[in-house]
Amino acid sequence: MRSESVFAAILAGGSGQRFWPLSRELSPKQMLSVFGQESLIAQAVHRLDGIVDRDAVYVVTNERLFDELRNHLASHPDRSLHDLRYLQEPLPRNTAPAIAYAAATVELVDPDALLVVLPSDHVLEAGQTWHECMSAALRLAAEGYLVTIGIEPTRPDTAYGYIKAADALPAHAVGDALPYRAERFVEKPDLPRAEEFLAEGGYSWNAGIFVMGAARVLAELEAHEDTAAIAQTSRWLAAAQAAGAVDADEARERFGALPGISIDYAVMERSDRVAVIPSALKWSDVGSLVALEEIAPPDALGTVRVGRGVDLDTRDSVVYSTDRLVATLGVEDLLVIDTADATLVAHKDRAQDVRHVVDALKDQGAEEVVQPKVSLRPWGSWTSLLAGHNFQIKLLELKPGCKASLQRHRHRSEHWVVVAGTALVTRDDERVEVHANESIYIPVGASHRIENCGKVPLKVIEVQVGEYLGEDDIVRIEDDWHREG
Amino acid sequence: MRSESVFAAILAGGSGQRFWPLSRELSPKQMLSVFGQESLIAQAVHRLDGIVDRDAVYVVTNERLFDELRNHLASHPDRSLHDLRYLQEPLPRNTAPAIAYAAATVELVDPDALLVVLPSDHVLEAGQTWHECMSAALRLAAEGYLVTIGIEPTRPDTAYGYIKAADALPAHAVGDALPYRAERFVEKPDLPRAEEFLAEGGYSWNAGIFVMGAARVLAELEAHEDTAAIAQTSRWLAAAQAAGAVDADEARERFGALPGISIDYAVMERSDRVAVIPSALKWSDVGSLVALEEIAPPDALGTVRVGRGVDLDTRDSVVYSTDRLVATLGVEDLLVIDTADATLVAHKDRAQDVRHVVDALKDQGAEEVVQPKVSLRPWGSWTSLLAGHNFQIKLLELKPGCKASLQRHRHRSEHWVVVAGTALVTRDDERVEVHANESIYIPVGASHRIENCGKVPLKVIEVQVGEYLGEDDIVRIEDDWHREG
């Protein structure tokens, strides 16, 4: 039907500080599986089913997050998420440069390409309404509109942006999706104004979901002096990337020099070609830990609890524990968020300020703001159990049929004790089956690999001993997932 | 000087539920090292230096706590605490039966014996005043008085008992310690009454410290119908114990049938032979987690913090973390108590109700109310790192020159990986030195023992694999500490 090819850019460069300690710098909010059956980013990918072919989906992230994000998606049971395309911004520079980079990349494939832009860390109900919205949006985008999906506001929320609709564009309706020209954008209004918007009608929440021609959005950026460099640098970077000739330092320098502004501010608020499709989709930007209130029914005193423990006389609070025991007594309006290695106790009204806690902890050099306790790998995961002086204990879990990379270490030996399943271990020239309740020793310098050759999950206790135990002491010789270094 | 021998009974049967999660059933408040350089019970023993010979000190506890308490004291650097005498009540029955059992025991050694009774879980400043109080108390006790040490009240505390002094007994003064006859005892008055006591003067706090003739206190108990059985059963139990002929079932039955009442109620409030020695000793019964307010200076907003993390806009709270990262934001009047495996968040005003939290968790079968994460042993300690299905990981730490018992297991194999120090391992007929970065395997059923044969602490990662991993799967063949089973 449509001659233009359709691509998607899932924006996944956010660090999600406001979800600490559930989120970490290297395991940000989009990787949380708290809201629904799968992580927010996996939900975002699946939201594109039937709209964008899987191999036309780009996950836009930055160099720092790339490896963790790919490991995360590669560990999803749906194998179609294992080989997504990734774009790595040389540095995080807000949404306008991220989208421009994606647009420039797909423009090289098809100058008429349409681009669907989705946040990676929101909750949004898919279904018929969603598909009608996207069909209408793609038709409008093919005609040169910059389309945004508006969410019908259900409360005068002051944390969201609002879009005012002007005249309808009935010719582009699809099912119940009736587009309008957009009159104006208003960022985070104060409460009286937000209440006014709801009373007046015709306003939608800006959900950060856009559909537009790749060339169109680049042209809009080029049309303004303060954003032209965003388009130019993105085209340069996309071309260099396509030619396999990116100079990393130059890329960082040029990309880093771009203004770090949002697509709303750079394009949507300025252009007269913006259309909005209001819809009553169930959506949340999951903007703070208070969103956890929605994931379980409250008890008689209004407290939502997930995890082991008790709440006595605890009112209107959220108590969330990933695995440890947490008890509360006689408190109210609290967020008590507990993970294996860190706990946050905050007043609910201060949920937006959790990032200040993260900043303060960063100043202390706290590793717990960066590293998650469990690190996902394409083959499974590892969990840090204890870090001592000159030794470290991990639990490795490998999925049946999966193997870690063939590697060696310059500074550490490893003792592997298999506690469940059966491992096939390569150690230099040997290949040895190691069964539950057996162990094997990997001396410093020996090339080694572990593989789950059985039919059940393989669990191995790894005791590392050495003078240096950093994750970067790893020489990968061979890797199913083409990881380097 | 004195012909009567002097003994001490340190009452250490308390379960200290109000200090959860710092305290556990098997690691109660008296074993906490939070208040001062050593645990409260070690402080209690050392408080007797120069007053009671070490081999005349009895730690009175119950069967359930005995092993943990002895392990705890046996791991103290002061070796004179390793071989204290212990009295095990067949069941916990409050202070009157506990003291009577100690009195009956020392009465067998010397019918004129004097007995100093000390709680094991209080904080009390030692020094000259303390010694003068005890000298005066021993003189009075030798003349048949039941002596209690009174603490000069500094605030109208409603959680303490009060003692009203009558006429002075100047003949028995020692230094500044001037004893009085006691007029009456008042348990936990309400606030107006407590304020009245302070205004009126002549009242002391009842610190639960007593000095009395062993025969005297037994006679006082025998003099009343409702307490006579306490004296009789205690004498029967002490005699059976001395003869090495205790029938455990009969002991439990007879001791369990005794009224579970306090010595205050059973004797001190009734007798006309009670003397009080008021003193300005610094004392606290450390009655709830709020006592943690005293262990570090508060920040500018009145919050006391111990452990890693930050507090932003947190007022008048206590944030105590043993090893994990804890952050607070915008809260006030909270107790946030964090341990390796459990966290409590409570309003300060509810500190007395923490035991209800413990009860509720017990109903859930939560192991975290019973077991501490780190278990002390005479030879060092073990820390539980991970309990999985059919496997379990522990960190063993052995002090130089110490060895665990020679033992075997019926259900589990053990892999020992030495990560620091050098171990001498006995495995059936072998004796093998295992060095750092080496491992050894102990099959099911093999008799084995680990010994730190080096000069530095030995650290071993123990991976247990088996169908049953309970602590009670242990057959001790030989043990330096004469532990059984």
Can you characterise this structure?
The first copy, chain A, has 485 residues and is of the alpha+beta class. The first copy, chain A, folds into 3 domains: 279 residues, Spore Coat Polysaccharide Biosynthesis Protein SpsA, Chain A, CATH 3.90.550.10; 68 residues, no CATH class; 101 residues, Jelly Rolls. Helices cover 22% and strands 33% of the residues of chain A. The first copy, chain A, is built from 10 helices and 28 strands. In chain A, the strands form 7 sheets. Chain A has a 6-stranded antiparallel sheet. Chain A has a 5-stranded mixed barrel with strand order 6-9-7-8-10. In chain A, strand 18 and strand 19 form a beta hairpin. Chains A and B meet through strand 13, strand 15, strand 16, strand 17 and helix 10 of A and strand 13, strand 15, strand 16, strand 17 and helix 10 of B.
How much is the radius of gyration of chain A in Å?
Answer: 25 Å
List the uncertain runs of chain A. Answer: none
Count the helices of chain A. How many? 10
* CATH architecture grouping of the largest domain in chain A: Alpha-Beta Complex
Largest sheet of chain A: 6 strands, antiparallel
Average pLDDT taken over every residue of chain A: 94
Q: β content of chain A, as a range?
A: 25-35%
For the biggest β-sheet of chain A, the strand order reads 18-19-20-27-22-25
CATH-assigned fold name of the largest domain in chain A: Spore Coat Polysaccharide Biosynthesis Protein SpsA, Chain A
Question: Which chain pair shows the most residues in contact?
Answer: A-B, 56 and 56 residues
Report helical residue fraction of chain A. Answer: 10-25%
Judged by helices, strands and strand pairing, the structural class of chain A is alpha+beta
- The shape of chain A is globular
Tell me which oligomeric state these chains represent. homodimer
CATH superfamily of the largest domain in chain A: Spore Coat Polysaccharide Biosynthesis Protein SpsA, Chain A
Number of structural units classed as domains of chain A = 3
How far apart are the first and last residues' alpha carbons of chain A, in Å?
A: 45 Å
